[in-house]
Each structure stands twice: as structure tokens, then as C-alpha cells.
Amino acid sequence: MSQSLQTTETNEDFDVIIIGAGLGGLGAACQLGLSDKNVLLLEKHNVPGGFATSFVRGRFEFEGALHMLSDIGTPEDPGALYRFFKRIGLVPDLLKFKHIPEYYRSIFYDGYDTVIPYGVEEYFNKLLELFPSEEDGINNFREICEAIYNGIQYIGSRRGKVSQKDIIKDHPWIARVVGLTLQDIFDKCFNNKRLISVISQPWGFLGLPPSRCSAYSFLGMTMSYLDKGGAFPEGRSHALTSGMVKCFQKMGGTVKFNALVSKILLKNDKIYGVELLDGKRFHSKAIISNVNPICTIMQLLPDGTIPEGYKKKIYAPEIGPSGFSVYMGLNASPQELGLKEHETFINKDDDLDAAYDSFRKIRDPRYIVAACYNNIDPTISPQGTSQLVLTTLQMGDEWQIIAPDQYHKIKDNYADKMIQMVENTILPDIRQYIEVAEVASPLTYYRYSKNYNGAIYGYHQDVYNSPMMRLKSKTPIKGLYLAGAWTNFGGGFSTSILGGRVAAGLYLSDNKEGEI
Ligand SMILES: Cc1cc2nc3c(=O)[nH]c(=O)nc-3n(C[C@H](O)[C@H](O)[C@H](O)COP(=O)(O)OP(=O)(O)OC[C@H]3O[C@@H](n4cnc5c(N)ncnc54)[C@H](O)[C@@H]3O)c2cc1C
User: Which of 290, 294, 445 to mutate for ligand 1's pocket (most ligand atoms within 8 Å of CB)?
Assistant: First the structure.
């Protein structure tokens, strides 16, 4: 982070300053908006949202990140996130949601092609219909999934005040699953490779294949989608994040854009404010940082203020993947193209570990998702056109070592291979319809978000970094809290917002107890 040249005291004092208006920062801001605290939200860009944004190319406005949002449900059967949005005044007046008709389509190079529905009953019936010889294993798997989901709902209902004794007595699967990978659960139920692939399709939402992914995270996510469905905000994620900003302001919060924080200020080891790149200073006794923890701790804080043990905690977890996306505006409607589903996972085969290995090599993608947003919202692109976005994951460090003069060639070549996967499966003549295309690599995501390695979910979401074990919001510096994908419940829209709310809640309780 560059040093500012001249400092200017603004004499503006706040109870809390939030650095970053990504989903973690916005979750914290809106939670604090419900209290009587005087809060300042600072964002380096001129728009809120971080990854949760959109951009325009030609006559298309592309969704930057969101494929499907969990935890929304319906107004009659709302998820926890919808209930929060209602409390802050975002729904139903400022924002509406579209419901995604099906969970996903799954297609393989050998021609296998199936569509998986939402709904717990519908999902397990579909698995039984596709794999009748695996009936016992599927029923066993369902019991485990339901037991884990009941446990997660119990924990959610207790607002963090959970008794380990009750968990072990009433929800033993929660205690058991914490140390298990998704593959460990599959091994207890079945070993049909195609069945495992079909169930695991959304593993890219967590960034790790079954052999490494936390069973708790994957099964919790799956059951939440099955139970409440997937949603998409009308107006894309930009409407969601700018709506959250409006709610925060209505509740009395202050927002400043184009405000890059370059320093967190400490006096006698206590937080007393922040300094911006242009030298302006704002004061507060508490800070919630939505900036990734490595940057918050190692760059924003003064040297020598953080215990070595905590630095190890920050550096020890493995950093998760970044994304690689090809955003395409096609000059034909989804009907003309035969694209009926929103989310199609395209796989070369059932070797999910090989697919994960391909994230480390910039050669051949093996697993991508093609999202046709018109199937959720027909108005998302001009009439007679379609918005198709191809996404896979790539490890950011592999892209940092590319020579600058090779970058564009390598990026275009990789995008071309992803388009070939579409040609080989769902749309053989896709190239003749491409009107505009924009490609984002891990370097693009890094440049935009400043997340370490361009990581889109923060640290890896493996068993050592599942929601129970992940870095928490509280830091050793009194008054400094962390929020966002790297902490609490991990990456993703609803989890990052929830993590921000947790950080705000911790501040409020420390403040009530007189600690800050
Ligand atoms: C291509 C793609 C597809 C995705 N698909 C989905 C999906 O379908 N469903 C899902 O749930 N999740 C999805 N995600 C993941 C999800 O978008 C992220 O996990 C989540 O948005 C992370 O939010 P965050 O608040 O932790 O971080 P960020 O979005 O990185 O926000 C951090 C904010 O801090 C600001 N900031 C940084 N440094 C400073 C500074 N020094 N001063 C001031 N401001 C600063 C940044 O500008 C940014 O606004 C996707 C992500 C990508 C990229």
C-alpha cells in the first residue's frame, strides 16, 4: 500500500469505520445500521460490491460474479438472508428476486446429460431415478444430509450460543462431520463414480473436489439450495449492493467512495482511526476490515503491532482459487440456441481430482460452468440476444509468473479452450453468434478486488478451514475485526454477508461490555 504524502485531520469521529464495501463490509454496515452507532463505510472504488458487481460491453450489461444466491427462499417461506433484507428495508420495495427454475444441468463428454431439480424430495427422487441400483446408499446419504442440515439450522437458531453437549446429544452428525471430507461421506454410501460426479457438480462453488472439500460446507450448501432454492436479484448483483448502500444510508450511515484506506491508525496499541491514500484521516475506536486479512494485518497496520502467533494464523491456511471467466453476448435468443437451463456444468469426465489439478495448469480446462442468465431473467440482455458466461477456477499464483508479453496470448488461448468445451457439448456453432466477449483471469480479479492471488473465496474451504475452524472476526488488536470471504463461514454471497453481520455483532457485544 503506498504511503500518503500529507495528512489531513478531518475531525470526523465515528463509532465504527468499515473498510471495504464488498458483501462482508455491507453485511457489517447494515447490521450496525440497525443499532444506534455512528458508522462510516469507506470503499476504494466508485461503486459498492467488490466482486458483486456488473459491467457493460457493447449493448450487454454483464453480471460480474453471481450465479445463484442461497438463503433467499420465498416471501412465504423466507430464508435467513431474506429476513435480514426485510429488517433493513431492502425487500420487498427496493429489490426483487427472480427464482431459478432448476438447480443445474450436468453434461459430460461421453454424452451423459441430466437436469437436477431443487427441492429435497425432488432431488433425492431424481437421484433414485438416475441410479436405481444405488437405492440403499442414496437413502443413507439423504439421512446424513438431513441430519447435518438440522444441526446447522439448530446452530443458526441459537445465534452462536450453542452447547457442545446438546450438539453431541441431539446432532451427533455435526460433531462427526467437522473433520470429514465430502469423499469420506460418499465412501460410507456409494462408490458409483457418475453418481458422485452428479451430486458433486457444484463443488466449484467451494473451490475443492470431494477428496479435499469439507463435507460440512458442501452438504450444508447443497441442503440450503435444495430447501430454499436459488435466487437472482433483479438488476444483477449491482442492484443488490447499491440497494444495501441505500438502506445503510437511510439508517443513518455515511458512505465514501473513491476512498482507499492506506493505514489503520493505532495509539497506545488501541485503534483510533484510518488514513486514506490522499492523507485524509477519520477517527474511531473500532474498525471492521473487509480487506483480506493478509493485507489488513501485514500492510494496513503499523509494523510490530501484531503478535507473531497471529501472523502464523494469517499465513498458515492455503489460499483458495481465483476465477477465470469468459463473458459473452450472443446475437441469438436462448430459444434459438436451445439453451434452456441457467446453470450447466460441463465435464470432460468423472475424474474430479484431475479437474482440480487443472486449476494449477494453464492448459486444458476440464470442468466449467456455463450460465445463461436469460433463463432466469429474459430482460437481462436486449431482445433476441443471450448473455452466456463461462467460468472455471484457476490458482492465482500460476498467473503471477507469466511474462507480461505472453499474458494476452495465454489468456486468449485458455478462453478459446473453454469455448471449445461448449462447442463439444451444448452449442456446436457458438462462435458464429458471439457479438462481444470479455475475458477475466485471476490477474483481472486481483486488480479489481486486491484480494491476495485474486482469490474469490478467500482461504481454501477444506476440513481445516470449514466454517467451524476458519479464521474468526476478532483479532488480537482490541477494536479490530475482520469480515468477508476469508473469515467465519467462507466465500460466497450469503456467507460473506453473514460473516460481516457476525463481525458487527462481536463489536456490539464488546462495546456493550465496555471493552471498546
Ligand atoms: C466469477 C465469480 C463468480 C462467483 N459466483 C458466485 C456465486 O454464484 N455465488 C456465490 O455465493 N458467490 C460467488 N462468487 C464469490 C463471491 O462473489 C465472493 O466470495 C464474495 O463476493 C466475497 O465478498 P467479500 O466481501 O469477502 O470481498 P470483496 O468482494 O473482495 O470485497 C472487498 C471490498 O473491499 C474493497 N477494498 C479493498 N481494499 C481496500 C482499501 N484499502 N480501502 C478501501 N476499500 C478497499 C474492495 O474494493 C471491495 O469492494 C463468485 C465470484 C466470482 C469472481
Answer: 290
